[in-house]
Amino acid sequence: MPRAQPPPWALNPSAFNTLDHTTVIKGTHLSGSPAHCILRNYPRSLYPPKPRIFLTTLAQCQCFGFATYKKPKLGTECVEPMICLEDDDKDALSHVTELPMDGTPCGNASSNNIKMRRIILQFLNIIWIINILLSFADGIYQITPTNSDEIEYETSSNAWNQHYINYIDVLRNYFNYRSNILSSKSINIGFDNDVVGHTDDKHSPLTTHLDIELKLTPKKVISSRFELCKNENFRQCKYKWPYRSYDGSCNNFENPTWGMAETRYTRLLPSIYSDGIWKPAVASSGHELPPARLLSYHLFPELRIKDPIWTLLTMQWGQIVTHDMSELAKAPNFNLPSTSCCDGNGQLSKQNLNNPECFPIVIGNNDPVYDRHITQCLTFSRATTDYQISNCRLAASNDNNQSAEQITMVTQFLDLSNIYGSSEKAANILRTQSGGRLRTQILNHREFLPPVFIMNSTTFTCDEDRPEQVCYGAGDDRVNQNPQLTLLQTMLVREHNRIAIILGRINPHWFDETIYQETRRIMIAQHQFITYYEWLPIIIGVRNAFDYKLIYRTDDINYIDDYNSNINPTVLNEHSNGAFRVLHSLVAGYLKLVDEKRSPSSHKFLRLSDWFHRPSIIAKADNLDDLARGLADQPEQTRDEFYDHEITEYLFRGRNRLGGDLRSIDIQRGRDHGIATYNDYREFCGLRRARNWADFSDYISPNNIEKLSRLYEQPDDVDLSVGGSLEMNAGGALTGPTFLCILIEQFYRTRVGDRFWFETPNSVAAFTQEQLSEIRKATIARFLCDNSDDIRSMQRRAFEKPSTNNPIIKCADLPSINLSLWKDYTLELPGQQTKQQHFSILYKK
């Protein structure tokens, strides 16, 4: 359907008042677009193919109410155009506008004065004949029909729609007032092919053909700060600037928004929304898919099996990586009110029952954990998409049928946005503006993240309730989610400041900006090296990492020249909201605290659900060090179909007995995003498409296939999150082949599509070969040692459990980066003058 355009007079309301009423009587087409208005006496050929809902606007030579149409006698001519109001309509408008109503009678109604008439005409004109389905649906109001009749709508142009927002608000107040009079939360609209009206009398001749109830709820208008998609063609890049932008823009000069914060995800396969636009996916038959919670407890029960090799640090570093690369946009990111689909008692919210942004996880009658009589649902709100943001939709395409796409709020590169922020504003807040350091606070004589209030943001979640229990601020608003995450982000900030202090000492002539940017560059390089060369081979398998050119043997190769400006590094929706979530299986529900002696008798444990969004625990006693040692000592859970109850029954429970279910959320999120099915991705990744249940037997156990066949109607309905998680591990990886395929694709794009990748020789500010060799000495073990309070020993490979082949050694014996190679490595930033005129190491152009 082509995009609707406003009628000519909608852009110039005064023109309507000058129209000759006789031309209307003769049926002249005023608007120039028959799809936009239905006027009496129009030739039948000019009617839209389907009736649409309108409030009539024409006041010329016809006597009708603002809301209720009154047919005039044919041939009647009015001495003066007027609008007639029924008594309750008159009172309502008087209430809204606070203008006096007077005039001569017109039938059984009272006419308004000329000023009121013009105001009403303006109300009607702004939404061009108040076509509710055309105007209210475009970034202003959400329409919810309460019957099954198909309601068709088009979208309108923001250029004039935004211009009339204030008038629409007044009109909304009128509707609300009318609803209160009727003691109803909805408005009755009745119409036939040539008479349109609003009535509370269901026996009225106006409603002989169809009654439709509409619920009008305000739709949020994005603030200018977040007109993200409008800005996707926004800027000129600084071609000689040697550092990354804060928001990820201009990494690719030809496509400066690739990988940028506050832009859309991309996809490997098209979405499968049930309406092709935004409605959640359904089964192939059109029936509802099995409830996410039902799938969770049938297919993903608890069975705690410890991984024989890898430590809990492996799991936790995965969360650092995923938070660095993506964060799903939600209403608060746009200063919009959150929608609570279930109340605090787990009951379906009647207020939001028909809210399309609600997609609650429904609890069945036989749920083994949640009592149906006590808990009806687990709250789940749909992610914010470009389809809810007018500028995004307009920038996306001229095709109204383009499906919705979710937004990621952070940069999509491995660039430590979780400590530096994804905007210049956030980055500046987090800096001391002195010595290149990041802001911290001192608690118990130790350095911790700054307090959350400095961020001046409502998106940070924290459950501490006493002043001495500090919540932290960072570049990512999820920093307080769990103790291990907060711990690692604290250490990352400490590492930045450690390097900044050293660089400042060896280069006293460097300005704050130079120290900060050079430290940031070193930090990101270390992060990329540790993630790709130490962590990623564990997840996808060493051989796969080499075969798919995610890592290289660097014994005799210094630079890796593999940047490709044609590769889009934007995060895949299937990766962030599908495949990467498989690592939730690695989560342990109890966290080990290990002291320096590592005596088993001294080990203590924290229950994970006791400390969700309660980060103050890490600043108490020696908890930071003990938790860090625990991460490098405690095994993670095996990657299988089993999930710890701490995240499937007690997630974010706060002070409640029970909490949420992360596995249900993962499944529901895939449907929310319209992610294609498991079978679709099997085929995409080179596996045989399953025609029957037995075809899944190549990587899914017979027991799980039998469960799938009882829960789903057919193989084509199985969710990606479900099928991929049930696959057995393949190729030395911690995942099956389908998720492995998606992970490899994403991490290849993340590397090859990053112009600033630490190994490239072509960046404006590439490292020297000597510096690059030092970067490759970075290890997660040394990182823990350098940024703890008093950890003195660690095994060399901290993602791997201590053993005879990986013994615990002194921290001093672990390799470290020699930062003296950055001495006198002077950069003259634009607008600055350097105090040093010579270089001991040549700056690579």
UniProtKB/TrEMBL annotation:
Q: At the top level of its lineage, which domain of life is listed? A: Eukaryota
- Gene3D superfamilies under this entry? Haem peroxidase domain superfamily, animal type
Q: Which SUPFAM superfamilies match?
A: Heme-dependent peroxidases
- The reply to whether Endoplasmic reticulum figures as a keyword in the UniProt entry is no
* Keyword presence, Cell inner membrane: no
The record, for CDD domains, names: peroxinectin_like (cd09823)
Q: Where would you find the membrane-spanning parts of this chain?
A: 119-137
The UniProt annotation places heme b binding at H584
Instruction: Recite the UniProt keywords alphabetically.
Output: Heme, Iron, Membrane, Metal-binding, Oxidoreductase, Peroxidase, Transmembrane, Transmembrane helix
Pfam families in the cross-refs = An_peroxidase
Q: Which InterPro entries match?
A: Haem_peroxidase_animal (IPR019791), Haem_peroxidase_sf (IPR010255), Haem_peroxidase_sf_animal (IPR037120)
Which terms does the UniProt entry file under GO BP?
response to oxidative stress
GO MF: heme binding; metal ion binding; peroxidase activity
Looking up PANTHER family in the UniProt record yields: OXIDASE/PEROXIDASE (PTHR11475), PEROXIDASE (PTHR11475:SF86)
Record-given protein name: Peroxidase
- The protein's organism comes out as Microctonus hyperodae (Parasitoid wasp)
